[in-house]
## 1
Amino acid sequence: MVQALPASPTLAPVDGDDEWDGEQDPAVAADETVEVREALVDAGWHGQRLDRWMVDLAPEFSRNHLQSLIERGCVSINGQPAPSASRKLQAGQRVRVELQPTEESRAFRAEVLPLDIVYEDEHLLVLNKAAGMVVHPASGNWTGTVMNGLLAYHPAAASLPRAGIVHRLDKDTSGLMMVGKSREAVTALTRMIAAREVHREYVALAYGRVPEEMTVDAPLRRDLISRIKMAVLATGKPSRTDVYLLGMGEQGVRSISAVHCVLHSGRTHQIRVHLAYKGYPLVADALYGGVPALGLTRQALHAARLSFAHPVSGVALQFEAGLPADLAAAWEQLDLPPLSLPPIFD
C-alpha cells in the first residue's frame, strides 16, 4: 500500500463548488481547496505503471479521473511533469499529485445562463426551456444545465432538493417546466405530480396520418437491448397518452401530422415511444425511427401548456408557450393553421 507523505502546507485554491450527494440537498459551498499528496515509490512498486500506483495512493478516485490528472499536468515525478499514465515507476522516486475535484463534484455550481422565465413568485417559477438544454447535470453534461442556471438565478435553490426541479424535459424537447422556490412548494408540487394533478400538454410533428383522436395506453420500461431507449413492454409501468390531430401537411411523398398530446403519466420519452409504437415516429427523432425533415435536427416535440393549482395558494394556473423558431418554421412549411390548443381540462 502506498503511504502518503505529510500533506503539503500550501493548498492550491480553486473556485467554490456546490455539492449534492443524491440523497441530500445541494449544499451552499464553502471555499474549496485542492489536496496535494506526495509519496515515495517503494520497492514493491518498482516497474509498475504510474496510474496503478495512483489508485493505491488515492483510492477514493476512479482510475479514469486519476489518468485525466496526469494528462492535465497535475502529477509530477521528482519535480518533472509525468509524461503518461503508463510511465513505469522506479523505487525511490517522489511523486506529487494535485487531487483536483471530479467533474461530478463540480456539477452543482451556479452558472449565469439564459433562462426564459414566464412566471415567478416567492414559491414558484415557470420557465420555457430551450431545446438542447439539459435539465440535470449528468455524464457528458456537467455544466450549462437548467439546474446550473437556477443556482445562479435563485441562490436559495441550493438549499432545495434538486434546486427545486420537480420534473424534467428531455434535452432536445423545448417548452414549459415548473420549479419550486420554497421547500413548501417543492413538497406540494411533487405530491401533485404523483397524484396526476399537474396537466402537461405537448405539441408534436409526427410522420403518418394520425387519427383525429387516439389514446395510447401501453406500459413503458427501459429497452432490454438498448439502455438509452424506452420500450413498450408488458412488464413496464402503466403509461397513457391522449393524442388529438391539429392538422396535416405533406413533405415529399410523406404525410406529417401536427398533434396535441396530453400526458396522463410522465414516463421517460413517453410521447416519443407511444407515437413510434403506433407507427407515427416524431420528425427528426432518430432514436425512435424519425428521420430529419423540415430543417429540424431535434425531435419535433414542445411542451406547450402547463396547468395546475398554485402549490401554496391553490389558485388555478395555466401557462402556454408558443412554438420555438425551428418548430414554427416547420409548421409554416407544412402550411398548417396557426397553433391554437383546444381546452382539454376544466
## 2
Amino acid sequence: MSAHASASLAARPGVATPYGRSLLGRIGFLPALLVLVVVGMSATDPQFYGPLNILNILRNAAFLTIVACGQALVIIGGGFDLSVGAVVALASVVTAKTMALVAAAFPGNDALAVACGVGAGLGSGAAVGIVNGLCVARLKVSGFVVTLGTMSATAGVALMITSGIPVYGMPQSFVKEFGRAQFLGLPTAIYVALLVLAAVVFVQRRTLFGRYVYAIGGNADAAIVSGVGIRRHLVGTYVLSGVLAALTGILLTAQVGSGQASFGGDRMMLQSIAAAVIGGVSLRGGIGRVEIVAVSALFLTILGNALNLLHIDSRLQPVFLGVIMVAAVALDELGRRRKSRV
C-alpha cells in the first residue's frame, strides 16, 4: 500500500477493519457499565433518580463533555493536553475580571461587558492553546512536557490575578439569564454542550481538518508524504482544546456568579483524559469518536454522583476512576495485540 493510501485510510474515521472492530467492542463496554451503575443506584438510593439530582448530573456531564471533546481531538492527533484544568480556571477569572472592569467603566451596558468578558475568556484559552501547539509542532517538544509546564504557569497566572479571592461584579443578566437559566427544564450548559458535541462531530466526519487529524495521529510520516500540513493541524487541535476548556470556565463562572481560580484543576484534567480513554480514544493516536467520549463523560459523572450518594470517602473515589482507566487501556492494548496476530 502506498503512503498516500495509508494516510487516506487513516483519515477515514469510519473505516471498518481493525478500528471498526475496536469501536464496536468499546461501544459495548461503556453502555454495560452505564446501565449497571444506573440500575444499581436506582435500586439502592431513591435520591439518585430525583429531578434535582438528574439535573445536577446532566449539568456536570455537560461541563466534562465540552472539555473532553477538546482533549479527545488532541489525543487523536497523537498528543496530550494536561493544561485544560488550569485553562478552565484562567478563563473563569479573566472573564469575570474583564466583565467587572467593563461594567464599572460603562454602567448599564451589560451587553458590552458580557461580550468583552466572553471574548477575553475564550481568547485566554486560545492563547494557551497556541503556545502548546507551537511548542509541540515547531519545537518538537513532547506534548506531555509542554502542557505540564503551561498547566503550572496558567494556574499560577489565575492565582496572581485573583490572589485566591473570587472575582465578583459581573452583570446579573449574565448570571441569571444565562448561567442559571433553564429552557424546557434543562440548564443552558446542556444545550451548549450539545452544540459543541454536534460541531466537533461535524468537524471529525465532514471536514478535511478532522480527517487530517486522524491521519496525523495514525501515521504522521505517511501524512507528511501525502502533503498534509502537520504543523498547522496540530496547532489547531491544541487551540480547539484550549478554547473548549475556556468555554467550560465561562459556563462555570456564569453558573456560580463569580470567577474562581479553583475551578478545573487536576480533577478536570484527569477526568477529561479518562473520558477520552474510556470512550475509545487510543493513546497512540488516530482512533476515537467524540460522541462515544460524551457517553463516557456521562458515565464518569454518574459514577461520581453515585459514590457521593453512597457516602464513599472522597479519598477513595479516585481509586475507582484509576481502575476503570487501567481497564480501558488494557482492553485497548489487548485488542491491538489480537489484531497484530491476525
## 3
Amino acid sequence: MRHSAPHGDISGSSAQWSDSGFDQSLTGWDRFADPLLGGGVGKVAGSGVETGLGSAHGKAILLGEHSVVYGAPAIVLPLLDLQATASIRRARRGFITSDLYTGPLATAPIHMDPVLTALRVSAEQLDVRPDRVELILRSTIPFERGLGSSAATSAAVVRAVANLAGVRLTEAQTHSLVQEAEHVAHGTSSGLDAHAVQSMTPLRFQQGKPTTVKVVEKCTFVIADTGTSGSTAAAVDGVSMLRDIQPRVVDRVVEDLANLTDDVVYSLGIGDPIRVGQSMHEAHSLLAYLGVSSPALDAVVAAALEAGAYGAKLTGSGLGGCVLAVVPDQEQAGDVAAAMTAVGATRTWTTSLIPNDFDLMTAPTARVRKEDR
C-alpha cells in the first residue's frame, strides 16, 4: 500500500454476538468439509495439499481509548481495506513466513509471541499439532500503530487453523482464542480489538459487550500514520500508575471520556459530524492529560484541524501510532490528508461509514474503493 490514501466505504448492519464464552470441547461445534460453503479444508490449486485459510480486518478506535479498561464505553470502527491473512498446512516441522519474521517456529523472536499463542491455543483445541505446521502470514495493517494488527493477525491464524481442522467457530469461540493472544500482546486487554476485527459495523463496546452503533448519514474519516510506533502495554501501564497516584483525577477523566463517547454515539445516530468532531477534539485533550499523546501526534492533530477537519485525535493506545480525523466530505479529506503528510505523517487512509439499517438487520456488506495501491 502506497503512502497516498486508499479510499474505503464501510457499510453493513448489526452483527450478532454470543456471550456464551468458549466451549473447551468439540461438542456442539459445526464440522464441515465443503470449502464452497464458506469453510472446511481448502486445497492448494494444482495439488492435494490440505491448507487452512483465514483473514480479518483492521480497526480504529473512534473514542474511548484507555477509559474502556476501567469499564467506560468505547466506539470502534472497522477498517475493511486493511487485511491480515493466514495460510496454514500440516508439515514435518514448524515454520513461519511473515513480514516480521521468517524461520522455524521454535526460534521465533519474542515479538511473534502473540501469533504463536493464537496458533498454539487454537491448534490445541482443534486437534492440530502446532509444531507440525507451516504458517504464512500477510498483512496490510501497519504494525504497532493502534489499528488492530495483532488482533487481526491472531484472528486470521485462529480462523485458518479452524479451517484446516474443518471446524466452524462461533464469534464467541474465535473471540476467546484471540483474547489469549491479545493478553500476550498487550498485557491487560479489554477485549475490544478481538471483537472489532470480526465486526463489519461500528461497535459501542463496554465491559466486554459489543453493540452496533447506528449511523444515519455518511461520515468520512482520515487516518494518518505518524510513522512512530506506539506500545499498548506501556501506555496502559502508564495510565494505571497515574491512577494509583491520583485516583480521583484519573477517574474524573475516565468519566469525562465516557460521556464524550456516548455523545458521539448520539451524534452518529442523528447525523451530526460537527458534534462528533467536537467530542473528538475534547477527547484528545483528555488523553494528552493522561500522558499518552506525543509531539508527533499533537502536530498531526493540529494540522488536521487547520486544514478543515471537524475534529481530530489520537487513535489507539497512543505514545505514537495514528491520528483519526473526521472531515466534511471526500474532497476535504484530500486537503486534510495533505496537511497531515506535510507535518510528518508517513501515510494516510480515507474511509467512510455509511448509514446502517437497524430494522432490516441484513447481512453485512462492504463497498470499498482502492486507489494508489
## 4
Amino acid sequence: MSDRLGAVLAGAVPRVCPAAVALIAVDGSVAAAAATGELVRYADAEGTLAAQRPPAGRDSIFDLASISKLFTTAVLLSLAEEGAVGLDEPVAAWIPGLDPRATPRRLLTHTAGLPPTRRIDLELPGADASERMEAMLRTPIAHPVGGPYLYSDVGLVIAGRVAELAGGAPLGALVRARVTDVLGLPDTGYRPATPSRSATLPGPATLPRAAALSRVAATEWKPERPGPGCVRGEVHDETAYALGGVAGHAGLFATAGDLLAFGEALRLAAIGQGDAVLRPESVAEMLRDQGAEGAAFRHGLGVRIGDPAIVGPLSGAFGHSGFTGTSLVVDPARGLTVVLLTNAVHPVRGRDGIRELRHAVAGEALRLRELQPLT
C-alpha cells in the first residue's frame, strides 16, 4: 500500500466509485499500489447497502469496458505481422457486402464513418448472439469516411470480427493465444460468470467461475438482466452483452496486475526492448499519430495519445479509458505505466469525479518518477 496513492483513492471512495485499485510502475517495477472500497456496496439503484460487502484488493477483477479495444488492436496487429490481414485492405475481403472504403486502419482510428453505437439488443430482442452479430456487420456507413474522428463501438465490433475471420478462431481464443497466455495473465478474460470453459458460447477465454466471481466488482443495477441485484461477472456494456459477452469493443475483465503487465509489454516494445506480444515496429505504428482530425487527442491504432481525460500531467502518454471507470496510461518517455480500475457505474452511471481521480493518480505517478532518476 502506498500512503499517498491510498489517500488519493480514499478521497474518491465511495463518492466517485465504490471500489478502486491503482498500480504505478516506474521503469518496470511497481512503485505504488493501493486498493480500497467494496466490490459490492449497493443492492439496488436507490443506494440500499448490500448485505454482503466484500472488500476490494489488489487481486480484484474489474470490467475493463473499452480498454478491451487495446487487446483487439494487439490481436489485429499480430495478425498483420504474419500477413494474415492488411491494415489498408478493404474489410470487405473478410466481410462481403461491407463498404469497401472501410479498412482495419480506419476501424482502429474511428474514421470509417460508422455510427458511435448500435443497441442491437433493442433492435433484435428475440435474436441470438450470432444473428445480432450479422446485423452489426451490416451497419451502413453514415458519416464521412477518412474523418473527422467519430468514436465508434460499432467499428471495433467489426474489427473484432475481422480478427476472427483472419485468425481462424473466436476473438476470445485469439486474445488468449496471442496476448494473455503469452504474458501469463491468469485473471484476464471474458465472462467470469460463465460456469465453465466448456460453455456453449464460443471461445475458451473465460475465467474459472470459482476462482474469479468472488473477486469481481459489481457494476450497474440492470433489472432487465437475469438474476437479482447489480450486474456482477457479466459485461456491463449492453451491446457486448447482446453479442454473447465477447466483442471487439468491450467484454474483457482483469486485475490491475494483469493490466499493468499488458501495459508494460507495450511500453517495452515502444522503446525497443521487448516483443512479447508485438514487434517494436508494430508498436511504433500503433503509436504513430494516424492523423484523425477532430479528436481532443492524437489517435494511433486503437490507442489515444495525450488524451486529456486520462493522462493528466503525463503529456504524450498513450492508453485508453473504459466507461466503467477504468484507465490504462503508458508513458514510454518517462518509463511509467499507470493502471486505475474502478466500478464508477455501481449502482448507476453518471457519477462525477472520475476524470479528476484519473488525473490525481497520474499526478502521483509523475511525482514518483521525479523522485527517481531515469534509467
